[in-house]
Amino acid sequence: MPVRLDGRAALLAVLAIGSLGLAAPAEAAQSPAHPADDREMGDGLADYEVAAAGLAAGRDPVAAAREDEITGEREPMAATCADGVTTLGIDISKWQGDVDWTKVANGGVKFAFVRVSHGLNTIDQWFDSNWAEARAAGLHVGVYQYFEPGQSATAQADLLLERMGALGPGDLPPVIDVESHGNLPAAEVAAAVTEWVARVEGATGVKPIVYTGRYFWQDYVKSAAFAGYPLWIAHYTNACPNLPSQWADWTVHQYTDKGVVNGVSGPTDTNRFNGDEAALLAFASGSDGGGDEPPPPAAGGCGVIAPEGDTIIDNGEECYVLQGSEQWWRNVAGVGIDNDVVWTGTTKSTKTNSAEVAFEFEVAGIYRLEANIPKPHNTTKQAKYKIQHAGGLASVTVNQSTKNGWVSLGDYSFDAGTGQSVSLADLTGEANSLGRKVVFDAFRLTMIGQGARQGGDDAGAGLGGVDYARGDGEASCAVGGPGAGAGWAFGVLLLGLSRRRPRG
Fold first, then answer.
1. Are 134 and 163 in contact, with CB atoms under 8 Å apart?
2. Which of 223, 289, 300, 460 could form a disulfide with 190 if both were Cys (CB 3.0 to 4.6 A apart)?
3. CB–CB of 150/184 below 8 Å?
């Protein structure tokens, strides 16, 4: 982590070796491996950024450090101004104590970030109340973690994901607070940040925000790999902030740690979002900085399924309808049928996103239904496919993580015409914090017999090799295959009385 004020001689030793680029040594032996693990945002930047900026401007870094702020318009060439109107926000940790979030919201603040922990060793005891009450007050809220690169990056990410839970509409992306180097070389710090970001992005489907200072990042991380991620820059100035050379723009600017905010006791970190309230809403809902989410296709037909040959229906076709919040859908090129798949993170108890594929058959018959499940985004162990067929509603649970290619979901009787479908949702029973993904790709239908199968044992034939189970209290594929018995036939008959309505 950066050097404190009482380490001025060490600070000079670190800074004096650099020029305006302030290239730091591979190891910063002047600082301990970990600070006292209970620091609020900006603590680790306050001294280093000021002294570094002072040196860059040709000033005495010790004199600069006496200012005890990340302040000053030191390098006009690095200053990057907002695109236009900005929106007010704050960040909060235990150090602000009991916050009256209703007063905060009524005072004109539109967004807030709340600390979940300092690394693995300190959980912020105010996190749960801050997280819940700020959201309840109508603010756009995000979670930040003071990151320690010398600790397990994955464990830190999992701690944040577990405490945060599933993101909801209006929530901001999670934040990695990068202001401690853990006495590690820059390459190792960058690798740890990469590991954390990959874990959180994989679990949430949104790009995390990176919080840091210009000189700290340039000296102790040095990576340009995060240029496509939203930057939260710490620079205490009312003017335009100086950015690390690795970024071209900023999303949030922390411009003071001495803000006065109604509802908060004492000085408060105060921030600007680079945009108006509409832009903040769009960013919170995942349309900015969140990747290439495909828009939900309009409901419609994909053509009639003929009895001859194979019919493949791929994601992106009209009858393949993605439902739920766009911010949780991720589009990936280079894999799957037609080199394109979508995926979303798993959920334990609430369905957020799902896909339904509507079928239209030219003739009635027995059809084999297969799903293409390509690697590497197929990590759920409990993908639950629901098949609406001529006999009712069947459920098949597939361990996607063991598959790579076409997988049979069974043989089913389908009526001629519409009103039948296959669907798949993120509700697998696996917590979002596990970072598991449900992949959605093409379905294939192949006619293997004429007319309707007798005895109701159409559901379940030919399921060998598929991980399936009865589920959700609905009819499931018959695990016994053909000839499963009259009891199953009676169940299918009953389900036939409550068929799902055709899609409009």
1. no
2. 223
3. yes
Hey, what CATH topology would domain 5-284 get? Answer: TIM Barrel (3.20.20)
Q: Is 68 a catalytic residue?
A: no
Q: Which of 49, 179, 269, 457 is catalytic?
A: 179
Write out residues in the chain with pLDDT < 50, as ranges.
1-35, 61-69, 71-74, 286-299, 453-504
Query: Is-cis flag, bond preceding 376, omega within 30?
Result: yes
Please work out, in degrees rounded to the nearest 5, the angle formed at the alpha carbon of residue 152 by the alpha carbons of 151 and 157. Answer: 115
User: Which residues does residue 348 pair with via DSSP β-bridges, in sequence order?
Assistant: none
Question: Quick one: which H or E segment has residue 155?
Answer: helix 153-164
Class of the CATH domain delimited by 310-498: mainly beta
CA gap 451, 123 in Å, rounded: 62
Token pair belonging to 477: 């594929």
* Residue 148, burial from CB neighbour count under 10 angstroms (0-12, 13-18, 19+): buried
Known active-site residue 91: yes
d(CA 149, CA 225): 17
Q: Which residues contact 56 (CB under 8 A, 6 or more apart)?
A: 20, 22, 74, 75, 215
- CA dist 117 to 143, 204, 365, Å? 10, 18, 58
HSE-CB at 450 with a 13 A cutoff on CA atoms is: 0
- What is the rounded distance in angstroms from the CA atom of residue 489 to the CA atom of residue 484? 8
pLDDT of residue 325: 78
Q: What is the 3-state secondary structure (H, E, C) of 90-131?
A: EEECHHHCCCCHHHHHHCCCCEEEEEEEECCCEECCCHHHHH
pTM over 0.70, yes/no: no
Contact between 260 and 254 under an 8 Å Cβ cutoff? The reply is no
Burial of 418 (0-12, 13-18, 19+ CB in 10 A): middle
Integer angstrom CA distances of residue 232 from 209, 250, 327, 412, 476: 7, 6, 20, 53, 49
The single residue of 91, 356, 411, 458 carrying the catalytic annotation is 91
Pull the structure tokens for residue 97.
């104590």
In this chain, the answer to whether the domains covering 5-284 and 310-498 adopt an identical fold is no
| R_g (Cα) of the chain, nearest Å | 27
- Cα dihedral 23, 26, 28, 32, rounded to 10, equals 140
pLDDT value for 490 = 30
Specify the pLDDT at position 176.
98
Residue in 241, 267, 265, 238 with CA at minimum distance from that of residue 252: 241
Q: Cα separations (Å) of 215 from 21, 50, 243, 418?
A: 8, 9, 9, 62
297-331 burial, b at 16+ Cβ within 10 Å, e below that, comes to eeeeebeebeeeeebbbbbbbebbbbebbebbbbe
Instruction: Write down the residue that tokens 């830190």 correspond to.
Output: 156
Would you list the DSSP string of 241-295? Answer: PB--TT-S--SEEEEEEEE--TT--S-EEEEEESS-HHHHHHHHTTSSSS--PPP
Given a contact cutoff of 8 angstroms between Cβ atoms, the answer to whether 126 and 138 are in contact is: no
Q: Where are the domains of the chain?
A: 5-284, 310-498
